[in-house]
């Protein structure tokens, strides 16, 4: 077939380009059809899934393949062929012509019905199952509708289905329903029930039926679509309820949709739940004050109960449309493939639903490359004319033309995939347009890689213009992508011109790391005080290289340096660190302090030195250090604290050395803190200290107040109160005395409460013990004497016996027990009394 631009979308505003994608695509049926229509004109056509049947104005019928090539020709008449009908099998055909001829025959047998009537026969329709039926039914229509049926004698009999309402202009047979149109309206006949079930009247009676014929189309076995003039009705045949039957037909017709259109209807066809409608269009010319015939329109509409929505509308450039009338157009469709044939006297156009390739064509035409690429990726198994990668390349070219280099580079990653040749071509193209930076971050860097020269070219480009971008690529790209030594040399060349550039130095250190020259990298990191220096040391175990650089590391970041040194004591010893930091006592203190916090014993030989370091650089931690250290020389510590007048530390050391009275004296005289003095006395819990504290405080009213408030639970307050001089004014004395009394009452209450609890518990336990000891003990043949280990009961129960059972459940023959001992009449269990005096001290005696 030859593809041509034979349609244009109908737009509301012709000045605006339509952004709505067409629903159908069109092609002109050519090949043999072109030759036929050059000398003749098409009058009708019918469509089968396998072939086409075309009737002409000169009485010929051509069988065509779906490409339009003529496969067979029938000379039926010398005048116009009015209608051709095929059964579902495509093996039988019915033909009628303007001169009254009717032929119904098998395409492969030529046997059948051949008759000539004295009036034009406008329509013919075969039973859908004509080839399978024994009766070979078909209908014809001229001035009346006749049903033909072959009887058992192989003769044809005729039945008049309808007459008297003018010429029959159209007929359609579907399953058991026959629909036909005459001058007054549309009738439906139920072939199985042999009765007519409805009459749908024509709306616009002013139109000539021969000029504006009725269009009929069955959507399914029960839905009929009727188009006449500008009116469309959708009729559904339904089964009547048995209770409503009476004298009515078994079925009835419900019109579910009825609406008017703008133009005259030439043909109808279903498309899922939508309609394909062929319109005859006349346009009014203002200059000539008359209407002229315009291009016919093929619309897809969505029927509604009383209106419709237009989905798409295309004006068709059929040949010689200016000479055609409404009756010259026909619309036929193939249900199997959703093909629609627009027939005019000199042209046949095929419309079909657009596939994914057509959708991509339209997107590319509208330069919607991204949507086209996405559609191709989603439907890559179904597209036949397009290639995903070619569409992607077209998209990249479009982006480059529009100078959207970043997006173009990003799309390369998706489009080029694993094609290394295309990658290299794109890199060189981006180099030509000066956009290597754009594509650099998207280059392959995994298992699939480009040649090293490609990566080096990009690195050299960045090194010339963008040091930061160069550093980013070095960090992101694996070192195996390029020749590391070549890049190191290039960086060194640039450092000769700018030796203090920190970005280049950092990048050089990273390159040395890739090349496993860690000492060079470490030297640069330390010079730059770079945060990655510690990570480099840990990762590559460079502790032997930093033994003489500990001070530098500490100056850079004390916390990280100390943590690293302490975590790796097996690699750098404590003694080595102390030696290195000997000249920097402030750094040495930080190291030894963290060491002490981790383990109080590891650095014990440096504890004496730490006293001075704490006193000099970190006094708040001196007292905790003195408390926790067991290796600190107290005399040395006391000397340093006294020299520096550290009172709290001196007090602690004095108390630690046993000189508590001197420590208390310093608290009272130098700190003058009665609360701390009282707290110190409480900790020591020494009566002499309390006496010294009272003697020192007796002439100091604020101290007396503090003592009255706090000593009630440790010292008898009377001792203090008796020593207070008469007339001495003591602040808050009344409150202090009230507090002493309250504390005393509280102590009394606590003692009484404890006593009640103790008595109640004792009584409860005594009662429990009494109940336990009062319980009976079962003695039977299974028990034995714990002394002689024979049965506790005699075999002859008639003889007298004596058994002793203790509360511990041990049993003895009385004669087996030892004598009472020191206490006459008191016996104990031998077993339990050897361990403790408990439940075995009781006794239960059985005699008989």
Tell me about this structure.
With 848 residues, this protein is α+β, with helices and mostly antiparallel strands. The protein contains 28 helices and 34 strands. A 5-stranded antiparallel β-sheet has the order 1-28-27-24-23, with no helix packed on it. A 4-stranded antiparallel β-sheet has the order 2-31-30-29, with helices on one face. A hairpin with a 4-residue loop joins β27 (297-303) and β28 (308-316). The termini are far apart.
Summed up, what is this model?
Plays a role in vesicle-mediated protein trafficking to lysosomal compartments including the endocytic membrane transport pathways. The chain is α+β, with helices and mostly antiparallel strands.
Count, helices? 28
Measured between the Cα atoms of the first and last residue, the distance is 132 Å
Give start-end ranges of low-pLDDT stretches.
13-17, 837-842
Radius of gyration (Å): 58 Å
Helix content: 25-40%
| Overall pLDDT metric | 84
Main beta sheet: strand number and arrangement? 5 strands, antiparallel
Globally, the shape reads elongated
Structural class: alpha+beta
Protein name: Vacuolar protein sorting-associated protein 41 homolog
Function: Plays a role in vesicle-mediated protein trafficking to lysosomal compartments including the endocytic membrane transport pathways.
InterPro entries: Beta-prop_Vps41, Clathrin_H-chain/VPS_repeat, TPR-like_helical_dom_sf, Vps41, Vps41/Vps8, WD40/YVTN_repeat-like_dom_sf, WD40_repeat_dom_sf, Znf_RING
Domain RING-type: 785-833
